[in-house]
């Protein structure tokens, strides 16, 4: 599995678990990671947030 495929798998799992609250959950997670100084974690969840946004925009069209 490529890193991109792994990120999509994570995104879809988060959406399945958290549903409509997924963007809020991811934003909270980014905040927690930022406070902990985990820059790699922040970047990872920003990538997930971008994919959630793509899913959301696609669902509205």
Structural account:
By secondary structure, the protein is mainly α. It has one domain (3-60). The chain contains three helices and no strands. It has helices at residues 3-18, 22-36, 39-60. α1 (3-18) packs across α3 and α2 (22-36) runs antiparallel to α3. It is globular. The mean pLDDT is 95. Pfam families: DUF6961 (PF22284).
Write the layout of secondary structure elements.
Elements: H1 3-18, H2 22-36, H3 39-60
Largest sheet: none
Structural class: mainly alpha
Gap between N and C termini, in Å? 29 Å
Strand content: under 5%
Total beta-strand segments:
0
H-E string: HHH
- Helix content estimate: over 70%
- Mean model confidence by pLDDT: 95
Q: Could you tell me the radius of gyration in angstroms? A: 12 Å
Which ranges are low-confidence, i.e. pLDDT below 50, for 5 or more consecutive residues? none
Number of DSSP helices?
3
Oligomer state equals single chain
Shape: globular
What is the number of independent domains? 1
Name some characteristics of this structure:
mainly alpha, 3 helices, DUF6961
Compact description:
The chain is mostly helical and 61 residues long.
């Amino acid at each position: 599995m490529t890193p991109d495929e792994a990120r999509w798998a994570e995104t879809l799992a988060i959406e399945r678990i958290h549903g409509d609250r997924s963007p809020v959950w991811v934003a909270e997670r980014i905040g927690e990671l930022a406070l902990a100084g985990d820059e790699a974690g922040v970047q990872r969840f920003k990538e997930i947030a971008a994919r959630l946004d793509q899913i959301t925009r696609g669902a509205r069209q």
